[in-house]
Design a protein that fits this description.
Elements: E1 30-31, E2 37-38, H1 40-48, E3 52-55, E4 58-61
Antiparallel strand pairs: 1-2, 3-4
């Protein structure tokens, strides 16, 4: 049985260049695990700076208490 290993060449999600990052659906805010809404602009910045992850439609990261 072969195991699937993703590399930078085979997966667009493992790149650090913003131009190669897959596009996100337009004009939607993000939701966190605890149900908080993160504005799209703040979420995109966090994703580009690698301080957040988008997993299954949920944004995982640390956010200020007052959003």
């Amino acid at each position: 049985m072969k195991s699937a290993i993703a590399t930078r060449q085979t997966s667009p999600y493992l790149t650090s260049l913003p131009a190669e990052t897959p596009a996100l659906p337009a004009e939607r805010d993000f939701t966190t695990l605890d149900g908080r809404i993160v504005p799209r602009a703040l979420g995109e910045i966090a994703l580009r700076q690698h301080t957040a992850l988008l997993i299954g439609g949920l944004l995982i990261g640390e956010w200020p208490e007052q959003l």
